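quick one before i forget lol
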Amino acid sequence: MKMARIHDLSHTIIPGQEEYRLELDTRFTEQWEQFAQYQRTENQWYVISEVTFNTHVGTHIEFPYHHFQKGLDAACYPLESLIGDALVLDISRWGNNECIPLPDLQKIADNRIQKGDIVYFYTGFDRYYRTEKQHYRPWFATEAIKWLVNLGIKVMGVDTSGIEIRNPDGSASVGQPNHETLLGAGIALVEYMTNLAPLINKRFLTFILPVKLAGAEAFPVRVIGIETEADS
């Protein structure tokens, strides 16, 4: 018999507290014109909400359509690429605005990445989410992204705001070579993950299931990791 530990790898998003737009309008049913026919009994709690949000709010997944007009969007990206074996690699030795070179990344991976893996990267900077340091992160050399692509990974994920190259002063570089390399190969990217520490260097099953919204280049997502252990 096996036991499963379920890890929630997504941030809770809170209306009014996020960097990007997130609005939640909750009303009693009769306060919405289209639901006015559904009458409540006295003191009954019966509400319906409408949500307005940026597609990159909180933990979110970015699809090829984000950078390529003919790339796959949230509705078309294959399910088999969003579910599968995963691995968490520890890149916390790199600080804010430090480059992760290919040779160092290869040493950390230590031949553990298998074709078809979903690979998440731990920095520990998720502790800065919703603070003035929210965009603190290292960044990957483009050669390192190309190497991950050539290994045949299905999805890349980070617990920071991104993977893109930065200038020495921390400002954004012109262009998005890392995104274009990854998404151009049909590989989606998850940003702003959290709670990866317990899964460092472990293999587990992961699910990344966004809403199947046609035309969406990205979407907030609930990511879970399922760690199975033999029952003693």
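fyi The radius of gyration is 20 Å.
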